[in-house]
Amino acid sequence: MTERETHRAIEAVFRIEQAKLIAGLTRIVRDVGLAEELAQDSLIVALNHWPDSGVPRNPGAWLMQTAKRRAIDYFRRNKMAARKLDELGYDLREIESTAPDLDTPLDDDVGDDLLKLIFTSCHPVLSPEARVALTLRLLGGLTTDEIARAFLSAEPTIAQRIVRAKKSLAEAGMPFEVPRAEERAGRMASVLEVLYLIFNEGYSATAGDDWTRPQLCEEAMRLGRILAGLAPDDAEVHGLVALMEIQASRLRARTGANGEPVLLLEQNRALWDQMLIRRGLAALDKAESLVGAGPYVLQAAIAACHARARKAGETDWRRIAALYDMLAEMTPSPVIELNRAVAHSMAFGPASGLAILDLIADDPALRSYHLLPSVRGDFLVKLGRLAEARREFERAAGLTRNERERILLLDRAAACQPAA
């Protein structure tokens, strides 16, 4: 393995372990900014040592042990930080004594450091936008660019938001814990949004060479299931779990033999994970039996329409269109309108979908959103307007940051060339 390949492997391992590492370190140092710095320091050490020694059997524990040593060095160097450590009730020997067993994985129980980190990052001292951005950075391991894409926002704006959020949390000095029921309810909307955005980044990666990042989907689902146990009477929690389970059931079918994207209507439904579908439908039944159903329950109901169709042609598009109408009324947004246009196109014809798209074509939030021209191109193909469709697919290819998706869009553009 070349040095470059080794470094890529190390960075891949770090991306998997990063969230647990930051969560565990936050429990120790009570400062998410410092915890992230210590985690990054451990990566630098790994990049220097692992090419010669090899990746250890338990890389997560190795990184945690290295980060804890860095924390000890930090507090010993910095007298002010040492006083802060005393205020927290810690002794350096206590940190040293909690070094992990290198043969024990960094797994958490239901009292989960990761869940604590989500609720800490979603503290009311932060704005809703800052809560989501910070948690995606710390737990999802997303870059500021990826978060900006997910938010349809500018990268410098997101970077400043994250820096300010870390500073605000450090100044607030809140306890690192899952809050009690009454306080938890106030933060739940932000927590659900975080989980959904993490899941979506795994389901359809905004950048890079891979179409999907299943590890992020699995982490979002795991945290969602824990959250459902903590809030068993919250319809939206169960709705989000249902939505993620049903969507994740398609992951194997979303890519071809060479990693190329496979769109929903072209997928081999025999590859859909029936266990995840059953779990998702059960979670949806639970959600619909509770008071307070909202947008996640509606989106899960939409996903269920696809899951119940054994063939693409059996999909109940009229019901999906009706559900999107309800969703757009409940939580209006340009992205929901884009999806509503697709549903109406399938239910009532491409001209119907195009009419909805025309209403949002100039929305500033969609100016750099590649799916707008991509969907428009699809409608134009169905209407026989191939030259216009080709331009839309080429525009979409220029906007996407995902290489797999770019190739797919250019292929669709090429297919619109008139026959010689």
TrEMBL record:
**Annotated ranges, domain RNA polymerase sigma-70 region:** 19-79
Residue ranges of the DUF6596 domain? 187-287
Q: Which residues form the RNA polymerase sigma factor 70 region 4 type domain?
A: 119-169
This protein's name: RNA polymerase subunit sigma-24
SUPFAM superfamilies, per the entry: Sigma2 domain of RNA polymerase sigma factors, Sigma3 and sigma4 domains of RNA polymerase sigma factors
Any Gene Ontology biological process: DNA-templated transcription initiation
**Domain of life, per the record?**
Bacteria
Question: Could you give a GO molecular-function term held by this entry?
Answer: sigma factor activity
InterPro entries hit by this protein: DUF6596, RNA_pol_sigma70_r2, RNA_pol_sigma70_r4_t2, RNA_pol_sigma_r2, RNA_pol_sigma_r3/r4-like, WH-like_DNA-bd_sf
